[in-house]
ATP-dependent zinc metalloprotease FtsH (Actinoplanes friuliensis DSM 7358), 270 residues
Amino acid sequence: SRAKLYQPERGARTCFDDVAGIEEVEQEVTEIVDFLREPGKYRMLGAQIPHGVLLSGPPGTGKTLLARAVAGEAEVPFFSMSASEFIEMIVGVGASRVRDLFEQAKKVAPSIIFIDELDAIGRARGGSQSLGGSDEREQTLNQILTEMDGFTGSEGVVVLAATNRPEVLDAALLRPGRFDRRVTVSPPDLNGRSAILRVHTRGVPVAPGVDLESLASATPGMVGADLKNLVNEAALLAARRGHTVVQNNDFTDALEKIMLGTVRGIMLTG
Ligand code: ATP
């Protein structure tokens, strides 16, 4: 018997307003949103919509967030699977889980399937580690390819996948009709970091003196996930200090604490 049927995610809808600092990338996926909203318009013209879009970029830059926002903007169901989850599964189950996933998504199409950490199953085949798990990985990968090849274009299912390591992917994944559309999600620049800080302080009472611009200048190299964490650490500090609003020193102390933690982490790991 099969473990569980895939269900679309529920909960608050994510939209493009929740994603900051990567506007060019949003523009690239706008066409997908439009297609999911009005597949008929594209079908009528015989236009081929991409079946697969690969989002690549460093961890924490918002790839998952963006995929959710595409579904939210299009108001379509969002199915998500983490590729590494499949590797840990009982042998022989991966391929059938993939089949289930695509079946469920087609039933409620238009819809989105999101595959996180695609490289965990999508690494080039015939690699060195051909022990045990690798057969399972290959079967799972083959099933994904089979499903995507089976798309006639009228299903209205778009597969978005994320990876930190596009260079290790099997070339078969990138062929036409598969993940032939590639979008790079880069770490945010100064303006991007400001915008992300604004998004994450939307629900946070911030003291009038707090300057998010200068906080953005003080956080080079930080990505969305780091900045979200920074805002939260500052709010925690503020609470601990009995502040009713988050003050500038809460932010600067939180930043210092995070930086120290990072340095310590680097010293410990090597
Ligand atoms: P990973 O490769 O580690 O899976 P990812 O690129 O998918 O990372 P997300 O999981 O989307 O990153 O980011 C984690 C959280 O960080 C998001 O839920 C969001 O709260 C915040 N975040 C990341 N990037 C952005 C962004 N561009 N704008 C606003 N928030 C962001």
Observations:
- The two ends are 46 Å apart (CA to CA).
